[in-house]
Amino acid sequence: MDELEKKAYIFASIFSLANKLQVIGDKFDANITIKQWLFLVGVSKFPEPPIVSEVAHFVGYSRQNAKRLAETLEKRGYVNISKDKYDARALRIELTDKCREHFSGRYEKELDFLAKIFNDFDSELTEGFYRGLTKLVNNVEGMLNKPNNI
User: Fold this and answer.
1) Domain boundaries, the chain
2) How many degrees, rounded to 5, is the angle at CA 53 between CA 47 and CA 54?
3) In whole angstroms, what is the distance from residue 27 CA to residue 34 CA?
4) Most exposed among 3, 59, 94, 109, judged by the fewest C-beta atoms under 10 Å?
């Protein structure tokens, strides 16, 4: 396989892999879908309760999809949604104790899940894959930020 064929293979595999990861991720926890999990991870990465659009940008969802996810998660008791005290249009999202407890109880299971996904990856392969994926993410972000670049 030449370099162009490898790039095409990687490009196509990303889509297929994303779908397969979603399927196995959704089976991982009957209470939380993989998209909800990613959203909650996004919320947890901010030092203060973020607004919906911040989380949407962080995880790559539209604001509308992020708001829908937040509303679903609020109904299930995993987040609280409140209006920002300075901008009534902005909605802040905060993880609940129920959410923190749920995720603390599955830590070992998550480690096992990652170990299975990255089975037979040594540190050199992991580092190379990480560097390549980081570069790919940066290239895609650059294309998104400069639409004439597509």
Assistant:
1) 3-96
2) 25
3) 9
4) 3
